[in-house]
Each structure stands twice: as structure tokens, then as C-alpha cells.
Amino acid sequence: MKFSIAVKGADVSKNTGCCDIFLIFEEKRGKIVMRQIINNPGHKPDLLPGFLEEFKIGALLCGEMDEQTRQAFAEKNINVITGVSGNADKIAEEFALTAKQQANMQSCLQPMPKVLVSCRGLNGENNVLAVGYCGNCSYAPPMVMVGIVPTRYSYPMIKGSGCFVVNLVDKRYKETFDYLGSHSKRDGDKLAAMNVRLQEGKKVNAPILPDCPVNIECTVVDSIVTGSHEMFIGKIEYVHAAAKLLDSEGKIDFSQINFL
Ligand SMILES: Cc1cc2nc3c(=O)[nH]c(=O)nc-3n(C[C@H](O)[C@H](O)[C@H](O)COP(=O)(O)O)c2cc1C
Known about the structure:
The chain is built from 6 helices and 15 strands. The chain is α+β, with helices and mostly antiparallel strands.
């Protein structure tokens, strides 16, 4: 990414009109790989955005700027960062380390949870899949949501039964998690292959995984097709938690779980 700093003397200039020069930098992976000196074309605030656009910069750093000029730079896809002062080369090195540019938008909310969702089809068949698209979605009443891709073998099971269990996963279960997240029950009995232990849910007609420290039984109250996933909103009916994790009020000490 290329960026520029308005410079007076050796420091960042307070404004772009009275700067001596513009320093143009190119940053690659946090390091400056190019430095170029451009003379200030004169105090022509209207022309400056077009002038600097020629150098294909994505950002301009200076002390201050009025809204109208900032807008004119924005129209040229140049982000103006104001409030900058100090030695221009030092500022450039610091900026290179934090400079931002457009990134891939998929799965950009991180860290992503890693849970195992267990379910049962209307024919009584059990299944478990790894799920990363999930989260808390209501405090009162307590609810969570899980996103299931319609092509998953588990999808018609959850859609048909209207319930599922979210199992929080400890690092010790990593091998099983990876297997259940990369094999479909459509192709063979993955639960038997990994000796996955199952226990009956207390409130819903789906199995829980007793080897996971926390199991959240849910009934589906709604679902939204968001795109690639259908988000199933689950009202929490019962939470099983290892007794050693609970305080006197039943609150779970999540810090004791060595999450994946
Ligand atoms: C880390 C991880 C996260 C995943 N997240 C999801 C998810 O959020 N939704 C989904 O439908 N599949 C997700 N998958 C893929 C399924 O777990 C995988 O396709 C699984 O084999 C489906 O099993 P099934 O066909 O037996 O239902 C994830 C897999 C991994 C490894």
C-alpha cells in the first residue's frame, strides 16, 4: 500500500497547504520498501486530491484538515488521517506497521468458536458435526444460534426434530472434533469410528456428548437463511456443566476450560 505524509522541515506538517514536500511511501507487509520526495505543487487545496491521486496513495497523514478537503480526498479513495505530529520518517515506519487495506470478508469475525453440535433425526439416527458459525443471541430468555449449511447430513435432522445440543469442546477432544468436522455421516458411521460416547438429553430429543465439559440443550424457535448457512435460533432448555466448573450459584467458570 502507498501512503503520503505532508512534511515541513523533517516533521509532519500541520496542514497540507503550507507543507514543504510530500513524502510518498510504499509499504509491504509492514515494512517501507519505497520512499519518494514530491514538491508541494503550491497552495491549491482544490487540486491537491487530484495531484496526489496520481501517486496511487491510499492514505495521507497530516496535522489537520477541514471537512471539505477531507471529503475531496475521500472521493479520490484517499483516507486522510489527521492528528499526526512528530518526525515524518518515524511516523511512516509506525504507520507501515498498522496500515490497513481491504481484506477478504469471509469468516472475518474471529476468534471463531469451535463447538460440536449433536442432533437426532426423526428416524432416531444420531449425528454430530463441528460448527464455527454460532454464538449467544439472547440473554433473557437465554438463546444461542448455530449456522448449518443445508448440504450437511445433520441439516434435515435439526430441521425435522426442531432441537440440537451445543457441546463446548476441550483441547483433549481435538482429534474427535477434527474428525467430526471433516467427515459426513452420509459416508459412514463417524461416531463409531471415533468411539464417540453419547448420553440422552434431559429436555430435548437429541444426544449430548458427556466427554465435553458443557452441553447446551436447545429447542429451535426460529431460523433465518442468511446465505450459505441457515441460522437456527435455539432456546436453551438445559445446561449440563462439569460440577468442578460451577460456583455456588451455578455459574460456570469458563476459564477452567482449555478451549480448542
Ligand atoms: C472448524 C470447523 C468449523 C465448521 N463450522 C461449520 C459451521 O458453522 N456450519 C456447518 O454447517 N459446517 C461447519 N463445518 C463443517 C462440518 O462440520 C462438516 O462438513 C461435517 O463433516 C458435516 O457433517 P455431517 O454431514 O455429518 O452433518 C465446520 C468444520 C470445521 C472443521
